[in-house]
Protein: S-adenosylmethionine-dependent methyltransferase
Amino acid sequence: MAERDLEGKLLGSADLLNIINGDHENRAKPVTSSLPMNGGNGIYSYSKNSYYQKQSAGVEREKIIEEIREKLDMKTLSSVSNTIRLADLGCATGQNTFMTIQTILEAMQRKYKSQISQSCPHDYDDQMPEFQVFFNDLESNDFNTLFTSLPQDRQYLAAGVPGSFHGRLFPESSIHFVHTSFSLHWLSKLPEELQNKASPAWNKGRIHYTSAPNEVIEAYACQFAEDMERFLNARAKELVPQGMMVMIMTGIPKGMPYSQIPTGMLYDSISSSLMDMAKEGIIEEGEVDSFNLAFYAASPEEMAGIVEKNGCFGIERMELTNPAAWMKGPVDIPTLVTHVRAAMEGMFSRHFGSQVMDELFGRLTHKLLDISDLINSTCQEKVQLFAVLKRK
Structure:
């Protein structure tokens, strides 16, 4: 999961200066200030409060292994170079990124052995390529905490790559496998229309397109399509032919209102909490009107259309899954709010002030508890988008 900026504008690895051999036309415009998820190891740190993300990503584990086993040609990929390079984009902090990379690495090693053993049954251990993993997020990510958690027994060389994944990060044709989870649903910036009081997309009293007019939803959708086009163009240059990319993000069935899923209920409850605080004089109502979350959930059909329009990738798999399939009981609302705070507090604190954060998240907890039956009745919806692409 990635990051966000001043006034809630950016998020998920967004528009900062790009690095490492990116051409000028492909580079994203720089952003002057960014706010990461809560770093360190404190009570509200992301490293200690990303269990839900870990479990939701784990739902896709066997699918990733299957796609590598059935569709990734390790023999061809390793024939040009003895080093296989992986990138995790929007890595954040904590153990989640390392666990996912280990799953991918082991699946690639097994596939390599199965292919090589067919022609050289006794030599594949000696021929096993080296693996290098690049952990990417915005410059303001807590890379110190991330790298102090690196597994000591890892079977790969590790490197950090700070910068926005909406632009170039790596040299041309240098990466063999890309993974990104819970990052691409964050937009690089807010649609400009949301900041214009004269626009039909002026989002007064809300912090998201949940329960908003169609003009607001369309503005978000257009920005998402623009961001994904830039993301795909950058990855198309960096991935080798037949290289694979796995993307996990929030999604939604085509035509379903966002207010009908738990995340939409969460955002409506945050809006309501903030408006209550404004009415009580704790914050200004204008502060709520000028704040929006740059978060968008695409349908599989929408995402497929963007990929097909780009033309550089073949779609190997594109589907919605249930991110809460691992849950055996009701949603633990206080724990959920702590996870939300770990991921988003920086945005709210910068805009509304750190002194009201306890008030905001306390009110949010009470509001979600009041609708916990509704949340639990919808928490098994298929609202996680899993996509596997291959570079043509």
